[in-house]
Write a structure and sequence with these properties.
This protein has about 190 residues and is α+β, with helices and mostly antiparallel strands. The chain has seven helices and five strands; from the N terminus they run ααβββββααααα. The chain has two domains: about 110 residues, Aspartate Aminotransferase, domain 1 (Alpha-Beta Complex); about 55 residues, no CATH class. The two termini are about 35 Å apart.
């Protein structure tokens, strides 16, 4: 078992989902992972590779695997966090008993995820990013924006396409481009802080 990171103690001192968070922490550390703070959450890594992250939500707590789509899940425990998710999958819990019952599967997922990270396996067959027409026009007109958008990670590009393209009206899509203009130039995604 690896050691807990004292910098994350405040996360585990919070009363909501405290027992469940501590149980998931013990599983991750028992699986030989290192504990780091990433995106404000406890993230568990191996040799610099992100393996799993704790997600404290209002109604449940999640254990999210970065390469979850590639994990063998014979019991169907893993779920995509949203309809547009393609790579990460998570297991959601609302009590410690469920965590204890899932412990063997979670340790197996950790082992599989470590192997995937060590071998560099990634989800293949990514669909090309389809730009909303208004965004395509703006990128053609604004070289700085085009350069900054091209420098974004594929995930951030896709997130902007979903946010902008999700609007029904062209005027709203253009307004969303204006709203996120500075964030794109800063290299941030629409959900980054």
């Amino acid at each position: 078992m690896t050691a807990a990171n004292p910098e994350l103690q405040s996360f585990f001192d919070k009363p909501d989902w405290q027992a469940e968070a501590l149980a998931l922490r013990a599983i991750a550390l028992g699986g030989g992972l290192s504990e780091e703070r990433k995106w404000g959450q406890p993230c568990y890594t191996r040799d610099g590779n992100n393996i799993v992250i704790l997600q404290r939500l209002k109604a449940r707590i999640g254990f999210a695997f970065f390469r979850g789509a590639l994990l063998n899940d014979p019991h169907g425990l893993l779920e995509f966090p949203g309809e547009n998710s393609r790579i990460g999958k998570r297991v959601m819990f609302s009590d410690c008993q469920a965590i204890l019952q899932a412990k063997p599967a979670l340790l197996d997922f950790i082992k599989q995820a470590q192997h995937l990270a060590e071998t560099g396996q990634k989800v293949e067959g990514k669909a090309p990013i389809e730009l909303p027409e208004e965004l395509r026009q703006r990128l053609d007109e604004d070289a700085d924006l085009a350069t900054a958008f091209a420098a974004l990670t594929p995930g951030r590009q896709r997130a902007y396409c979903l946010v902008i393209g999700g609007a029904k009206q062209a005027a709203t899509r253009r307004a969303r481009i204006d709203k996120h203009y500075a964030r794109i130039l800063e290299g941030k995604g629409p959900n980054d802080r």
